[in-house]
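Backbone geometry:
***
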Amino acid sequence: MLGILTVLLSSFVLAFHNVTVRVLFSEHIVLSLFLLGGYVKPDLQNSFLLMFMRMLLVVPLMASLAFKLYPSAFKELRELFRRDRFDVLIQAFGCGVLMFVYIASLYIAIGLISTGIAITLFFTYPVFTALLAWRFFGDRPTLYRWLVMGIIFIGSVLTIPQSSATYSSHAIAIGIFASIGAGIVYAFYCVIAQKCLQKFHPIPFTWISFASTLLLSGVSLLFWPPPNIQLDWTPIWIGSIFSGLISFIGHTLNNLGIRMIGATTASIIGSSSPALTALVAWATISETLNVVQSLGIGIVTFGIALLSGESFVHRRTPS
């Protein structure tokens, strides 16, 4: 139960991060009071820029916080360079690379289509996580879990937007591709994280993922800088720092949840994130969905109730 609550709290925290990114890319009336947003275009170069700015201040701040929360973090980081721990170092850095890729893809998706829809399509990743866990850990999905994954897939299909005055068909196609692609990459992240977290604490592991993202986004900006245009840097910095702080909290909680209940279960429980994101987006930036899309998000969330029912049945069934 604690693992389930940890992952659900992670999803709620990350919902605010998703809405913050949406505001940075697109102008909205926040809390029905302030007109904010639209500071950068939703493209790959600006995704690199936002990631770099977000991590530039957050990584050192999180380092000091992480070492206070977990005093043995620095010792564990040093031990990664021992020969017998080198495999853990490779896995941790590999997760950092995957984090960089999926965040860049997800940023583009959030910038091009509604936040709730982008996150719902991203959350097709439990299907891929289950298949990868079956391949690498022999964790074969039960019939019940196949049912849950099918429900998630159906709900995700219902959320796919149609072209309109707000969203062109080209932008929608790129947003859909970016969302699902980010989900596939995140599935690999979850499975490798599960293996790594068997030998490594979640707090230094999360810090390595963030530090890797900082390094890779900085290198990407060197080779592919954004156009030389005038930007309003103050709100961009504020939004980047805020999104970085809540993202670190959300990822740390998610990694704790993976350690407690495994990648497959955590990923399916985390499917509540589309509904939470849509709710937060509606409450903060008045972003609305049509009836079919709302139904799709509700169907995705329904899978969480089914998974909880599976856990209850397992506890009640005599061995």
Summary: The chain has a mean pLDDT of 78. The radius of gyration is 19 Å. The longest strand covers residues 28-30.
